[in-house]
């Protein structure tokens, strides 16, 4: 018998031990008992981190949508699968039952087929948080097309580079989107992006805001009329366990974003299993994750994990501050939400508004509170615990990554005693290790190091689209025979883990991972700029904010600095999106460099964080004199 649903601490420890001793058997039992397969696997796992190569449930055949939809129809056809809460608080919520979801996914799947999309083709999805977004993911999965969702806050440049990287044949978008009291012209952004995307043949457009848009002859079509005439039956494409399910881009410390590839069976098994346990989901619970489906959290814990468990998952189109800062609490009360999963940056923004918005609403339905995306600071943890959970709903601080596909470290609510700011213990199947800089594993407790994972789990990303070498270099080369996360962590006296933050040049701003390199590239395009370096510094709402050091070409020095700052941020907005704008820009005569010419970000980071007292040894720098100058200017 599998331990699909863990119910107490002893059972957790027992299950974790089993998952380490007999990983194949452990996952095989879960896969066997809780999913539908068209054909059983020949082999549970083969792996080699040195290549690297990981395969789970090889030889098995399945379709993930049969697991997320079809199999629930008999018993739960009338249960709400997706509960859509629109941006406008006065507009009605939409309850999409499993029966209806089945029909809508099939209709869209048939439309995709009629437009020439086949198994293995890539479809880019650039949509706001409306039901069509979740339905698009599932429709692609229904016919074996690989979806690549791009967060609808990214700029046209960011969109086109992602479309081209994986050569998407189609884009699914909308005429526009609502964001609080504003509307955003999504179709205009797509049009601009597609000027540079010869691979895109078709664009399907959802009408969301009744905008007057132009449809490009032969390329663009409104989706609604196509759906109306499409059949509600669509045979599921039978997929191999290791066929790609989706690509999702994430920022790296260098170069262009990486298209992480997730495959079918392992991803399904792991996201379903972790959803059940981390949220202790029970039949008839209403679960709400506030993430956008443009990020991995939305893929795994709005769409696939919940639906694989036959859950009711809330999709929220709006923002926490519209019409006021009580919006989250109002939605919780309205839909009697039981599990609420959000990001520390939202918690901090709401905490800053004080408790008054909370008082108006009844939050007694809440049973579990989740946190994800960045380290949660002690103050935010307590505010969440005291004011939202009323000290009755445990907080699950879930640590994981786009690359891991599912939650890796987390307490199990009502089971694992929580500790503020700690992600606590590994989930079953996860074998974390802390390593020192020379690559040795640090054993014992009360230690800290670089967080690695020793053994594969079912939902590990299999590669970077089109660049397996980069996958190897990024995750499997820092330490031998280990997956390296890029995060630092400490292990306390009882073996609980706390994530201390990135140890590379990725900066997490409001829960969004931003690589420094693409931002610097954008800045350097400014004709007055010679060079730039970006670092993170603490920010009370965003967690980290961006600090840019910019050196100007001679001609640029004459220019008004405030205007330059505006132009630089505009360039960043155009290239990446407004989320990557800099909070501070300091113009400097030079950047501190090693003798080999590498920018010493460590020093710049300390200056940005106001930690000038311990800059370390700067005498080996090529140009130690610039450091003093930078400090002097920073203090002005
Ligand atoms: C960070 C989001 C501390 C971490 C699911 C990781 C966290 C990166 C936590 C991945 C947490 C995520 N505590 N840090 N609970 N969750 N992170 O790919 O640095 O968007 O490597 O996946 O976010 O971000 P990503």
What would you say this structure looks like, in words?
With 636 residues, this protein is α/β, with parallel strands linked by helices. Helices cover 32% and strands 24% of the residues. It has a domain at 506-634: GMP Synthetase, Chain A, domain 3. The chain has 20 helices and 30 strands. The strands form eight sheets. The protein has an eight-stranded mixed beta sheet, sandwiched between helices. Strands 5-4-17-16-18-19-20 form a seven-stranded mixed beta sheet, with helices on both faces. It is globular, with a radius of gyration of 24 Å. Bound molecules: 5'-O-[(S)-ethoxy(hydroxy)phosphoryl]adenosine (WTA). 5'-O-[(S)-ethoxy(hydroxy)phosphoryl]adenosine (WTA) is lined by residues 250, 295-297, 371-375, 397-402, 423, 485-487, 499, 502, 508, 513.
Keywords:
globular; alpha/beta; GMP Synthetase, Chain A, domain 3; 24% strand; 20 helices; 636 residues
User: What do the pLDDT scores average to?
Assistant: 95
Q: Which small molecules are bound?
A: 5'-O-[(S)-ethoxy(hydroxy)phosphoryl]adenosine
Low-confidence stretches: none
Largest sheet: 8 strands, mixed
Kindly report the name of the CATH homologous superfamily of the domain at 506-634: ANL, C-terminal domain
Please tally the helical runs, counting DSSP H or I stretches of 4 or more residues. Answer: 20
Strand element count: 30
DSSP strand content: 15-25%
> N-to-C terminal Cα separation, in Å?
66 Å
């Amino acid at each position: 018998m599998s331990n699909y649903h863990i119910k107490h601490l002893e059972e957790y420890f027992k299950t974790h031990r089993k998952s380490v001793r007999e990983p194949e058997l452990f996952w095989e039992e879960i896969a066997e008992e809780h999913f539908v397969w068209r054909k059983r696997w020949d082999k549970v796992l083969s792996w080699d981190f040195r290549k690297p190569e990981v395969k789970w449930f090889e030889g098995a055949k399945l379709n993930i949508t049969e697991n997320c939809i079809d199999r629930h129809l008999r018993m739960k056809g009338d249960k709400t699968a997706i509960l859509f809460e629109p941006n406008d608080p006065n507009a009605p919520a939409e309850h999409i039952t499993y029966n209806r979801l089945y029909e809508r996914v099939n209709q869209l799947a048939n439309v995709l087929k009629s437009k020439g999309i086949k198994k293995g083709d890539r479809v880019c999805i650039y949509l706001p948080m409306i039901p069509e977004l979740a339905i698009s993911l599932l429709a692609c999965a229904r016919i074996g097309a690989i979806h690549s969702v791009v967060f609808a806050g990214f700029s046209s440049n960011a969109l086109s580079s992602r479309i081209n990287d994986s050569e998407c044949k189609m884009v699914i978008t909308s005429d526009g989107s609502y964001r609080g009291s504003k509307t955003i012209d999504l179709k205009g952004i797509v049009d601009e992006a597609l000027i540079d995307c010869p691979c895109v043949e078709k664009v399907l457009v959802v009408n969301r805001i009744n905008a007057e848009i132009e449809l490009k002859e032969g390329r663009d079509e409104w989706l609604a009329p196509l759906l109306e005439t499409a059949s509600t039956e669509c045979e599921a494409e039978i997929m191999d366990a290791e066929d790609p399910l989706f690509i999702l881009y994430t920022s790296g410390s260098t170069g262009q974003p990486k298209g992480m590839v997730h495959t079918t069976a392992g991803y399904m098994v792991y996201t379903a299993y972790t959803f059940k346990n981390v949220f202790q989901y029970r039949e008839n619970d209403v679960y709400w994750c506030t993430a956008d489906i443009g990020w991995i959290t939305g893929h795994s814990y709005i769409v696939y994990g919940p639906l694989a468990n036959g859950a009711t998952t809330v999709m929220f189109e709006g923002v926490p501050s519209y019409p006021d800062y009580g919006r989250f609490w109002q939605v919780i009360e309205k839909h009697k939400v039981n599990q609420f999963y959000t990001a520390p940056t939202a918690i901090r923004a709401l905490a800053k508004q004080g408790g008054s918005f909370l008082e108006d609403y009844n939050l007694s339905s809440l049973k579990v509170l989740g946190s994800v995306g960045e380290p949660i600071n002690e103050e935010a943890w307590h505010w969440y615990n005291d004011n939202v959970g009323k000290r009755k709903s445990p907080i699950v601080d879930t640590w994981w990554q786009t690359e891991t596909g599912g939650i890796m470290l987390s307490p199990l609510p009502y089971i694992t005693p929580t500790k503020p700011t700690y992600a606590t213990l590994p989930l079953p199947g996860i074998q974390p290790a802390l390593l020192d800089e020379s690559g040795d594993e640090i054993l014992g407790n009360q230690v800290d190091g670089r967080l690695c994972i020793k053994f594969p789990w079912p939902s590990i990303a299999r590669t970077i689209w089109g660049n397996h070498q980069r996958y190897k270099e990024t995750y499997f080369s820092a330490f031998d025979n280990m997956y390296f996360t890029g995060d630092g962590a400490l292990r306390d006296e009882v073996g609980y883990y706390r994530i201390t933050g990135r140890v590379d040049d990725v900066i997490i701003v409001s829960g969004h991972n931003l690589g420094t390199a693409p931002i610097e590239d954008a800045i350097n395009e400014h004709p007055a700029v010679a060079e730039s370096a970006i670092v993170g510094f603490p920010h009370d709402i965003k967690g980290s904010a961006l600090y840019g050091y910019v050196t100007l070409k001679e001609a640029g020095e004459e220019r008004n600095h405030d205007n330059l700052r505006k132009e630089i941020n505009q360039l960043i907005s155009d290239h990446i999106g407004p989320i990557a704008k800099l909070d501070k820009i300091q113009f400097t005569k030079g950047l501190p460099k090693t003798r080999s010419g590498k920018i010493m970000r460590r020093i710049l980071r300390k200056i940005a964080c106001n930690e000038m007292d311990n800059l370390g040894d700067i005498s080996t720098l090529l140009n130690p004199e610039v450091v003093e100058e930078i400090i002097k200017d920073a203090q002005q």
